Amino acid sequence: MYDLTVRQRVLRLLGSGQTVSAVSRQTGVSRATVRQWRDNPDHLSSRVASCPRCQEIPQPPAPGDVYAYLLGLYLGDGCISTVGDPAKQVWSLRIMCADAWPGLQEECAQALATLRPGNKVRRLPRQGCTEINCFSKHWPHLLPQHGPGKKHERPIKLENWQRKIVEANPGSLARGLFHSDGCRLTNRVRRDFDGRSQLYEYPRYLFVNESRDILALCGETLDMLGVAWRLPKPNTISVARREAVERLDEFVGPKY
To answer: How many CB atoms lie within 10 A of CB 86?
Structure first.
């Protein structure tokens, strides 16, 4: 399957008067496919058409809340790698989900299926976790943060169209980020008053990531939601104030 840009180039060359054989040699597309596109110029592959970033006028992925959630999962526990022959440019988006949270695995699989409805979602057992993956030619278009090396060793910046989605769906991004590299736990602190020791317990969120850019994005997202946070460690965001935890509970809550 070819990207829409390849098809458009083939049609432009045909429109300039070149033969099927000449266009095939220039583009690497088989003569049978070039001939099919020539004879059916208005017919688009459903899979190509389903990638909003490959349209003649690129569109944002939809629904936005599902995309924002998947973006958060990818930035935390996801990666994109080639499948088979690199020349075919087929990519696998892989999200690692702990087996302790089957509900999170299901939500991740549903997000993949929603954004790439024509592609199969697979669940592969790994040690202590499950790899949830989906093959597509379009993952680098939908998640342009993909690149060589580890995320914390390279810049992670959102495209303008991604930022608009995040600004419209900050709760979904926060949910994805905390579902990947975060947790909601009970913090226990012992204090001494008048010679007596007393134990205090309260809920708290932590988000841990080695990428400064991803930490900053998480902080910006919490700001959009009106959630107070701080950095107790260089790689950790903490949400501990009662009203802040209650606000974040509206979007995240405990993993399940």
So the answer is: 10
